[in-house]
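re: that chain from earlier
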Amino acid sequence: MADKCVICINHITKVYQMGEIEVRALAGVSLKIKRGEVISIMGPSGSGKSTLMNILGCLDRPTSGEYTLDGESVQTLDDDQLASIRNRKVGFIFQSFNLLSRTTALANVELPLRYAGQNGERREKAYKALKAVGLEDRVYHKPSELSGGQQQRVAIARALVNNPAMILADEPTGNLDSKSGREIMELLLTLNRERKTTLVIVTHDPTIATQTERIIRLRDGLVEK
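^ sequence. v structure.
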């Protein structure tokens, strides 16, 4: 269903213990994000957006509250279960690309499939993902042989290859010049329209945020009304 809630979090808190001091990074965040929706998360330094991103991406657990990702309850999973749901349900795009420098674009895109234990058609799926981002003629190039924009396209292909429920992009244009940044945003929005994959972008850039359907603003660990 097009309106199915892919991300449902209810009163999520995250408390870090710093010696004798408790730091409340999230103070009761509730959100619903529908399938195919494009949203941005913004907030000043210390607002809790990095903590929220880590929880949404199953990189960390909340201290309390409920999180359901694409119909699966997440908050009580152990490390192995979190790793599994992260691989199946979440595609990550990072500001610094996070590509393996000594391997080809094709091998980088194959990684999520390899971690998932997929053998059959792994190379074909990786090639199709690279073709979807316009890099079918760069499949055997290493990151050092690609421009910044091309490296980010490889990262996008890697994020898409498992057909995740959500793409989580952390400052995806932060390391790019303005022209490459515009091209990457156009590509992400085009892929969202074509595939109906939920897209969550964490950004400081209001130009990026205004291209999304909804802006979620955090301050002091809470969603601003």
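The chain has one domain: 36-63+77-223.
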